[in-house]
């Protein structure tokens, strides 16, 4: 346990940030799961709408510093490729 006042405050701030980041990462996983479920079900309209939401969420997480920008870009790219492959095979 820290004895220095500034470090005690820093620990409180870090804990709040950790919980915020945890919530954001959990939301990203949930949105990604919903996208993949819509894709698997073949519901391309829902998948398209969900993909847009997921990409915005990844961009916001990267902007907030929850994820590295390249990590967010890699996830978005993977989801977009899955959507394009599914839509090409459906057409």
Please give a structural write-up.
The protein is mostly helical and 91 residues long. It has a single domain (5-90), classed as Methane Monooxygenase Hydroxylase, Chain G, domain 1 (Up-down Bundle). It has helices at 5-41, 44-64, 69-90. Helix 1 (5-41) packs parallel to helix 3 (69-90). The longest helix is centred in the first third of the chain and has 37 residues, at 5-41.
Write the layout of secondary structure elements.
Layout: H1 5-41, H2 44-64, H3 69-90
Helix pairs in contact: 1-2, 1-3, 2-3
Q: Main sheet, how many strands, which sense, barrel?
A: none
Q: What percentage of the residues does DSSP assign to strands (E)?
A: under 5%
Q: Output the CATH topology.
A: Methane Monooxygenase Hydroxylase, Chain G, domain 1
The number of distinct structural domains comes to: 1
């Amino acid at each position: 346990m820290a004895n220095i006042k500034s470090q005690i405050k820093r620990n409180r701030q870090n804990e709040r940030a950790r919980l915020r980041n945890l919530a954001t990462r959990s939301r990203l996983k949930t949105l990604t799961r919903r996208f993949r479920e819509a894709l698997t079900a073949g519901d391309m309209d829902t998948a398209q709408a969900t993909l847009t939401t997921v990409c915005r969420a990844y961009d916001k997480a990267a902007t907030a510093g929850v994820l590295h920008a390249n990590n967010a870009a890699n996830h978005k790219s993977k989801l977009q490729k899955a959507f394009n492959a599914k839509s090409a095979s459906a057409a």
